[in-house]
């Protein structure tokens, strides 16, 4: 029986947010929510399947900014405090529910138990660093770990700046090696942003493959024999795996996707918003900024404010149903494609943000588990990875994908619109000036070296795709705007100081302590003629 | 080299710098001695770097008017010494970014020197963006967009796919003379094979299915991309007619 080969790539990424100068910082919750709702439960599920002997192969893209935060002792300590706070809240909630809202009591207990599990896994199993868990699963052959651009820059908008793209790729690979002790074989293009020629930078770092958006094959300048159902090889030899939009949207669509089912848990109804301020004040942010606490008792129900109580047993039934439906649709698709594919069986590449599972879609990890169990038991389905595919099928059509992204409109308009276009004047100037500094002051030592290395970090951090995306999306705009300006202003300080042969040591020490990402940063990477000491 | 606010560093950090600089006795020095030694060291480096420099050392260049930020809760995100971003940079340049095959974004600046020169030369009648479009080496054309002297950016509609575009910022004087102030790098709009081969897609259902079966949701929504949607619309309008 012909196998349906399916590759699931989960992209775990968060922007670098670390403000230990504050007792608590609102945007740091992005990390803590993802840890407690996605990464820890995901690792638990994968370890469980492994211990039961299930065969599966998944790909995880771990962004360098996320890895830096997960490995940061200060943030690890703060996450423990976050969990302890949520444990306290759970105890208080169980008491409150037992008196006032008895029907919610089992749910409060469920969240409380999850918090205890997270606390125990995080501290005892992973010794505060969940990267250990991912490394362990890679070592046992169940997952492949890949990287993405150093600060998740949307690369097509930097195509005129080869040193900046080179730095994004090279620093990412260095970061991956530092955290996982292996070179990555795959590279997640941030936002699936591709322009012809980008693969050259990947090849130089010995990357074998990257993923592209679904329409990149249709909009290519040459016909692609297998459409989106097989990877292609770019002229320089790096393989591009097109994402299957049809299959992905079975899950990842806010109108048609499985997570929209009325029985699933409603993300947006949370006691952080629903209960009186007096009650939730210790668990939200100062001054009286309501936030999600993770204690959510209502089902999606439908387009109404009158939500039904969340019933996990009904949701669990839907999870099984949706896992069956997913595999059924793959099989149906295979049959339907039979006569269209001239060159063999299809290979389906599905890419998702990892945080969709567990965080946005509470039952998503259970769904993934059900899919893996079914696929492992099936004769006609095979969960594999792009790296495995290339090892088995090295002969690919040589063709260059078309310029594309997975954002709205499928090109660059999300990251270059009326809300965020202003940033490129400053970022591009910072890159040009960083190149100038690297050429004018090569191979510096000590303070100047540290100063220039920090300038490089500031340039890279300003390039993150998250900031223009947030400005475009109009959520947390104030923070994104501030971060962008701060990184650029920080860079300008170094530039102006270096031009007058000065080092602002106070700034340097503070900046190094706050933006402490990429400890191996070498500013010489911005020198266009620098080759990293290689001949 | 000027060391700004070196007193703001902790003793450990001073020792670390001293160690990096190769000072042999860094461990035995007191904090004040370390600062003095580092100041002397960087003074020496300064003179080694620039031997022609006046030998008189102005100690005021060490900015010692310190505020002790360290150890306190600093609720500002700003780090010390940073300044606001300028609205534009003091240079005459223009940049062109490709947003999609149909639009590009241009931003530019005119240096104060060029602005003064333009004003001294009698000002301008018009400032314009000259957009050059090149289909091939022998086939190029241009069109102009009039912009204001205070404008600094513009969205430019790109009429054809598969072409190279560049944009020049030009001034037109009162006599109609045109001067190019700066020119952008070139961007190339992508060329999609299938927009020129729709017949093939129309005539081969298997080919159509191959491409579109992965681009449509189960509810029939086509992936959000104008090129794909244009192809789909062309095929469906022919099918209807």
Structure keywords:
heterodimer, A: 535 residues, alpha/beta, 7-stranded beta/alpha barrel, immunoglobulin/albumin-binding domain-like, 18 helices, 10 strands, B: 241 residues, alpha+beta, Immunoglobulin-like, 3 domains, 3-stranded antiparallel β-sheet, 9 strands
Descriptive report:
The complex is a heterodimer of chains A (535) and B (241). Chain A contains 18 helices and 10 strands. Chain A has 535 residues and is an alpha/beta fold. In chain A, α1 crosses α4 (105-125), α15 runs antiparallel to α17 (477-499) and α16 (466-473) packs across α17. Chain B is flat, with a radius of gyration of 31 Å. Helices cover 28% and strands 25% of the residues of chain B. In chain B, a hairpin with a 2-residue loop joins β4 and β5 (139-147). Chain B is built from 6 helices and 9 strands, in the order βααββαββββββααα. Chain B has helices spanning 11-20, 31-49, 112-120, 198-203, 205-212, 226-240, and strands spanning 2-4, 93-100, 103-109, 126-136, 139-147, 153-157, 164-172, 178-183, 187-188. Chain B has 241 residues and is α+β, with helices and mostly antiparallel strands. In chain B, 24% of the residues are buried. The longest helix of chain B is centred in the first third of the chain and has 19 residues, at 31-49. At the A-B interface, α8, α11, α14, α15 and α17 of A face β1, α1, β2, β3 and α5 of B. β10 (502-504) of chain A pairs parallel with β1 of chain B, so a sheet runs across the interface.
Task: Describe what is shown at a glance.
Chain A is an alpha/beta fold. Chain A is built from 18 helices and 10 strands. Chain B is an alpha+beta fold and 241 residues long.
Order of helices and strands of chain A: EHEHHHHEHEHEEEHHHHEHEHHHHHEH
Q: Roughly what percent helix of chain B?
A: 25-40%
CATH H-level superfamily of the domain at 1-71 and 129-259 and 354-414 in chain A:
Glycoside hydrolase 38, N terminal domain
- Give me the Rg of chain A, rounded: 24 Å
Question: What value does the Rg of chain B take, in angstroms?
Answer: 31 Å
Uncertain regions of chain A: pLDDT < 50 for 5+ in a row?
A: none
């Amino acid at each position: 029986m012909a196998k349906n080969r399916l590759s699931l790539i989960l992209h775990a990424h968060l922007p670098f947010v670390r403000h230990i100068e504050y007792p608590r910082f609102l945007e740091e919750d992005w990390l803590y929510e993802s840890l407690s709702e996605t990464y820890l439960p995901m690792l638990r599920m994968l370890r469980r399947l492994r211990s039961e002997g299930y065969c599966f192969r998944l790909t995880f893209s771990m962004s360098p900014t996320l890895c830096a935060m997960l490995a940061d002792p200060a943030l690890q300590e703060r996450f423990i405090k976050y969990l302890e706070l949520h444990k306290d809240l759970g105890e208080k909630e169980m008491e409150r529910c037992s008196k006032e809202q008895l029907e919610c009591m089992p749910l409060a207990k469920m969240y409380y138990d999850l918090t205890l599990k997270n606390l125990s896994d995080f501290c005892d199993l992973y010794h505060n660093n969940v990267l250990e868990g991912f490394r362990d699963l890679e070592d046992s052959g169940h997952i492949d770990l890949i990287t993405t651009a150093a600060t998740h820059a949307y690369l097509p908008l930097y195509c005129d700046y080869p040193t900046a793209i080179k730095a994004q790729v090279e620093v990412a690979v260095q970061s991956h090696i530092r955290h996982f002790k292996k070179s990555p074989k795959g590279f997640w293009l941030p936002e699936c942003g591709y322009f012809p020629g980008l693969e050259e930078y990947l090849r130089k770092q010995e990357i074998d493959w990257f993923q592209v958006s679904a329409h990149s094959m249709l909009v290519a300048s040459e016909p692609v024999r297998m459409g989106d159902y097989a990877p292609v090889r770019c002229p320089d030899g790096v393989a591009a795996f097109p994402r299957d939009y049809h299959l992905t949207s079975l899950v990842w669509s806010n109108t048609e996707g499985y997570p929209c089912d009325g029985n699933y848990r409603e993300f947006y109804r949370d006691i952080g918003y629903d209960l009186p301020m007096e009650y939730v004040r210790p668990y939200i942010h100062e001054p009286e900024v309501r936030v999600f606490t993770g204690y959510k008792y209502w089902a999606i129900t439908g387009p109404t404010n009158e939500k039904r109580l969340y019933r996990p047993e009904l949701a669990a039934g839907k999870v099984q149903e949706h896992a069956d439906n997913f595999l059924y649709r793959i099989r149906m698709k295979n049959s339907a494609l039979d006569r269209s594919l001239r060159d063999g069986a299809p290979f389906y590449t599905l890419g998702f943000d990892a945080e969709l599972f567990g965080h946005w879609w509470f039952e998503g990890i259970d769904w993934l588990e059900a899919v893996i169990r079914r696929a492992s038991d099936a004769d006609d389905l095979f969960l594999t990875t792009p790296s495995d595919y290339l090892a088995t099928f090295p002969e690919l059509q040589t063709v260059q994908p078309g310029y594309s992204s997975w954002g709205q409109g499928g090109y660059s308009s999300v990251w270059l619109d009326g809300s965020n276009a202003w940033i490129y004047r400053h970022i591009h100037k910072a890159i040009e000036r960083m190149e100038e500094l690297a050429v004018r002051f090569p191979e510096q030592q000590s303070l100047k070296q540290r100063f220039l290395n920090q300038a490089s970090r500031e340039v890279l951090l300003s390039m993150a795709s998250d900031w223009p995306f947030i400005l475009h999306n109009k959520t947390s705009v104030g923070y994104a705007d501030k971060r962008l300006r701060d990184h650029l202003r920080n860079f300008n300080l170094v530039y102006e100081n270096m031009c007058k042969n000065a080092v602002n040591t106070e700034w340097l020490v503070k900046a190094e302590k706050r933006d402490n990402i990429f400890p191996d940063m070498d500013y010489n990477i911005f020198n266009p003629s620098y080759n990293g000491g290689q001949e | 080299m000027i060391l700004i606010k070196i007193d703001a560093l902790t003793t450990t950090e001073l020792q670390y710098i001293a160690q990096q600089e190769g000072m042999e006795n860094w461990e035995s020095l007191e904090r004040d001695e370390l600062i003095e030694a580092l100041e002397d060291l960087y003074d020496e480096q300064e003179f080694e770097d620039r031997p022609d420099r006046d030998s008189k050392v102005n100690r005021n260049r060490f900015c010692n008017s310190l505020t002790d930020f360290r150890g306190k809760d600093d609720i500002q995100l700003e780090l010390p010494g940073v300044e606001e971003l300028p609205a534009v940079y003091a240079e005459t340049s223009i940049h062109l970014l490709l947003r999609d095959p149909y639009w590009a974004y241009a931003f530019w600046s005119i240096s104060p020197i060029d602005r003064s020169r333009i004003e001294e030369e009698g000002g301008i009648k018009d400032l314009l963006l000259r957009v050059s479009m090149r289909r091939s080496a022998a086939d190029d054309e241009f069109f102009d967009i009039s912009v204001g002297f205070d404008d600094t950016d513009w969205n430019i509609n790109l009429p054809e796919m598969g072409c190279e575009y560049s944009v020049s910022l030009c001034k037109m004087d009162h006599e109609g003379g045109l001067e190019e102030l700066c020119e952008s790098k070139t961007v190339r709009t992508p060329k999609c094979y299938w927009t020129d081969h729709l017949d093939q897609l129309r005539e081969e259902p298997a080919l159509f299915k191959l491409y579109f079966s992965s681009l449509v949701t189960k509810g029939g929504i086509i992936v959000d991309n104008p090129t794909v949607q244009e192809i789909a619309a062309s095929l469906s309008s022919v099918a209807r007619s």
